[in-house]
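User: Please predict the structure of the protein below. I'd like the answer in structure-token form so I can feed it into my own downstream comparison script.

Assistant: Understood. Taking the following sequence of 409 residues as input:
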Amino acid sequence: MSSENPESAAGNDMGDERDMSVWDVVVVGAGPAGACAAYAAAVAGRRVLLLEKAELPRYKTCGGGIIGPSRDALPPGFELPLKDRINAVTFSLNGKYARTRRSRTMLFGLINRPEFDAQLVEHAQKAGAELRTGVTVSRVEQHGPEVPDRRTVAVVLQDGETILARAVVGADGSASRIGAHVGVKLDQVDLGLESEIPVPETVAEDWRGRVLIDWGPMPGSYGWVFPKDDTLTVGVISARGEGAATKRYLEDFIARLGLAGFEPSISSGHLTRCRADDSPLSRGRVLVCGDAAGLLEPWTREGISFALRSGRLAGEWAVRVAESHDAVDARRQALNYAFAIKAGLGVEMAVGKRMLTVFERKPGLLHAALTGFRPAWNAFARITRGSSSLGELVRSHPMAGKALARFER
């Protein structure tokens, strides 16, 4: 739908009289999840406000891998700002037994998050969403003096300003205030450390088109090298509570790669949080998506595709919540959103948790399978390209499910 006059288009669907002081949908957080939610609600012709506490573009600790499911969830006409196209992966087991597997076609692409995120926000704006940056949300209220009626949610900013909406989408990251309002529960928290290391052309050329994945020394840990033009994104991740060991892993990893002599342009850290199975995805007229909902793949901690897909769904269902005239209907629409998430992303997360269990216990087995067993490599390639998923792999290949169950013991 054209973004030239979303108010009149929405008015046709939502009644003859519209209170223009109340937004149809307010989205908190302008990362991939929030931008996709704002885009989905805006193309439906709704008045959408996208709030972001930072000024864009802004840095985000993230490897920046765009796998097939991420690519397929992008808005129409979105051109990926790729820094490299990957067709080879070197696997190593804590620096040993390195082997490179290659593909004739691209496995996945690499992007820088500041550029990627800003471009997603531009698509949401072109669809009709309004953006406000430099604003911090203090809380949301669904009852009390700030809320004029039961069809309204109050978004209270840190400076005291109150913004009213018919529906709110929380996409404000893994330390989400909206997630706290909803009551998101977590059962896995990991620490990721990352350095952006500028390198000479001779070093960059050696990495072009190839990434490294190193299965780390701590249970469930791994490291990566992602090349992006003249910079290598080098990072590691492991369970929270292993901060000192994780830092040593990154230092040893960089030294082992011969990169210790290069000064990082950025060094950063980030906690990833994975939801519990019974964690809510909504409360009243408030939905959560992406990191704010704890939606990411538990084994690899891949979150971009989960953010894009859950953001789109949250935006679509927020429109339905906004149209609801009573609490019962709003609750019904919110439950439908939760069902859509669990039927898709929830299945992938369940298999990912099982994969993490096996990986924590037997990383050498996984390494041997990917480097020496062609069907395992082919499955990895199909998943990264987006022609399959972890859930589909287990469903369509009974032997894979049986092998996973065996190694979980």
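That's the full token string. The mean pLDDT is 92.
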